[in-house]
Amino acid sequence: MSISIAEPFDHQAFLKNLTNQPGVYRMYNHKEEVIYVGKAKNLKKRVSSYFRTNVDSIKTRSLVKQICEMDVTVVHSEAEAFILENNYIKKYKPRYNVLLRDDKSYPFIFLSAHTHPRLSNHRGPKKLKGEYFGPYPSAWAVRESLRTMQRLFPIRQCEDSYYRARTRPCLQYQLQRCAGPCVEGLVSEEEYAQQVQYARLFLKGKNKQVIDSLVDKMEQASIDLRFEAAARYRDQIGALNKVQEQQWVSGNQQEMDVFGFAYRNGIASIQGLFIRDNKLLGSKSFYPKVPAESSNAEVFQSFILQFYLAGNKIIPQQIVIPCELEEQSAIEALLTKEAGRKIQFYKGVRDEKRRYLDLANTNADTALESRQSHQKSVFARYVELEQILEFEQPIQRMECFDISHTSGQQTVASCVVFNREGPYKTDYRRYNIEGITPGDDYAAMAQALARRYRDVKDQTKIPDILFIDGGKGQLAQAEAYFEDWKQDKKPLLIGVAKGSSRKAGLETLILAGSHATIPMAGDCAALHLIQHIRDEAHRFAITGHRQRRQKEKTTSKLQSIPGVGAKRRQSLLKYMGGLHGVLQASKGEIANVPGISEELADIIYEHIHN
Length: 610
What we know:
Layout: E1 2-4, H1 11-16, E2 23-28, E3 34-40, H2 43-48, H3 58-66, E4 69-74, H4 78-92, E5 108-112, E6 119-122, E7 130-133, H5 139-152, H6 160-165, H7 171-174, H8 189-203, H9 207-223, H10 227-246, E8 255-264, E9 267-276, E10 279-286, H11 296-308, E11 318-320, H12 328-339, E12 344-346, H13 351-389, E13 398-406, E14 409-419, E15 422-423, E16 429-432, H14 441-453, E17 465-469, H15 472-482, E18 492-497, E19 508-511, H16 525-559, H17 566-576, H18 579-584, H19 587-591, H20 598-609
Parallel strand pairs: 8-11, 11-12, 13-17, 17-18
Antiparallel strand pairs: 1-4, 2-3, 2-4, 5-6, 5-7, 8-9, 9-10, 13-14, 14-15, 14-16, 18-19
């Protein structure tokens, strides 16, 4: 049901018709924006509490003053209310709710179910047949684990298309990081299956079982006078022992998440430790956006719900938390239903759980101090910049453009955004520049500016300051674009020209219009802020240019072959494991690619090699 009433909001009329059932309520301001989402076991009782005459919370009083409209959605149970509340928070991002910006999926190590299984990283739905180990807190943690696995167990990690196309062993076989199952006769089916089983046990944390089995095999190989095999087992045991020593935290917990919590001066820091198969897979810091005057319990409970209801991670059986949740039993029941198994919260009061919790709390506190120090530094830089440029209002948003290319080819323009907290990567953009004379940076800048600002409607998306990486020529393009600007808000344009020696601290800052230079000392905090945004724009542009250049490099040799269009090029690259595989392939191997006849294989081979 929905009630829309002109200001001031008539809460008495709204409450009169409100149900006592469980549900979710949304509060709107005069702009019809959702400013708060809440859930309740009893809607009438919960919503009534906001309109009492003796409300203690400053946050609640501020919220109530802004309410112009409310609506509710009735559900069947408290569990449904939790889920719907979480969905609404993700959708509307209300300013008075705690917001966790962590919507990405988490990576796993995947062991495929092929005849010769493959180890790889995986992110997203688990549709492929095989086993999944994790989740890991970052892609870096997965890559490090896969590198370790490559040294320990010679299991293939190559793409299936590359594996199928091999007729001779690749470099990984020569480096003894793969047993070479792609080539017949290099490794027996039994030996490869045994190495896969060792890898499986290792990923499950059963290192001792793997080492004991390898010791038995080494001793048997020595008895049978197979000294080369015994030496291989010896080296494998040594590598496993070394890896075990390097695992800095180990314990007896099969599956557990541990969260540390620190909250001061309006900033919340939550540190997660993720333990699977008796191993600490890694840690991750979270900094949810917290409304003013929020309580510790409210912040942490909101985090837990949003973290586990995102649907992109496995919910462990044990979750160690630093404080009791206000609705702990209901949340346990909800997560148990979501996971399909019993989920329990622990406060880490003894033994191993206490050690893990102390570690997480220490890391959360350290991360909070580091973030506060960073924010103070950024704030000081903004204040100094405002003073130098004589800004009457605080600078809320700055943007910077840069152009990157190689001899005029694959030109890419970047736009990076900074707010009061530093880089705001959600609003970063790259533009592939087309239709200009190669190497014409002025035309590239003009095109990038036009594409960035031609459809801007939200005033908050217009920067207070727009930096242009370059001299007067690039700055002139921005001046020309904004000369006929129709919006009420217009950015201050500043060119950032590198000095003759191109060293940091010797930049020339050029003000639009008068083209006067803005004097700043090399140790000036405001100049450091400008250098930061300029360097970030440069990094972002170069990364985009390299990606575009690599993509064109991959397909350029195949683009001019008669009879080979985009689909056949894609099929060739996929089946052969990339351009290198195509270049190394024989006519017969090319003819085996789906959609490629023997006649076309002759044409492709001759075109590539002649």
